[in-house]
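During the second year of the project, the team shifted from modelling isolated chains to modelling whole assemblies. The rationale, set out in the original proposal, was that interfaces cannot be judged from single-chain predictions alone. As a representative example for this report, we include one of the complexes processed in the last quarter. Its constituent sequences, exactly as entered into the pipeline, are reproduced here:
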Amino acid sequence: MIKIEFFGLYRLNYKMSSWETEAADVNNLLKKLSEYNSFYSYKQLKDSIILVNGKNIMDLNRFRTRLKEGDNVLIMSPASGG
Amino acid sequence: MYSELLDILHSKKIVVVGAGGLGGNIVNLISRLGIGKILIFDGDIFDSSNINRQLYCNQFTLGKNKAEVAAEETRKIGISDAESIPDFFQEKYFPLIKGYDCIIDATDSVSARIYLEQVAIRSGITVIHGAINAYFGQIAVVRPGDKTLSKLYSGKIEPTRETISYIPATVAAVQVCQMVKFLSNAAPLDREEVLLVDMFSCQMRTIKL
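Output from the structure prediction step:
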């Protein structure tokens, strides 16, 4: 299984801090997540900051970043108020 | 060791951009640290909707400029020298920040923060970033040339939701902690590291963008 942690309003809107699933890559994971809970669409999720095992997917293979058993994924949106 | 730190801080000059939820708490904390000079920018006035979370908002300050109130409160404490500019930081104020040691980001919009990232490059001054939304916040030490804020705000930005008193106070305290670590060269956050604060679950963690 792959563990997905949520940070920021994702945590409130999904009403869960983490979730587990199986997915071949980040793209596949985001599709599964949007089907599991429709609060955020697949397109909206693609605009998140996503880290796989602590590395930004923009520095990996973006949405084609491969996932394997035991990987940790963080999905977050930044705060912007003051 | 403590007195050496105070000597370092007393020799420093800090710009605080924004004197609302984060900024009010930050000005209060750095005033009591004995920072030499504090220059505060804010073009906004206190409104009754600010009273739940903005330190300097009360029945006596409603309708007053936030930067002017913050500077006045600093002078009442009587340790740091404080100056207020009752306006939002912009191009014409660049000459005023020359020689300052760091800029604290206590603004309340993405555009203001992206602008501060550019200010860091142009002025050569490091920005101590902080932002809040609902129960959450983040802090970063943005050195001139870092793309931390551009990366952070490159995608989805959630609309700002109502926050409560201890969220700006917490994030402001961590920003001031990072400011002190930066000014005293005591291992502040690394370049493009972001400290995430979650007061819903009472957790903090650091990520690298």
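The domain at 2-76 of chain A is CATH 3.10.20.30 (Ubiquitin-like (UB roll)). The mean pLDDT of chain A is 96.
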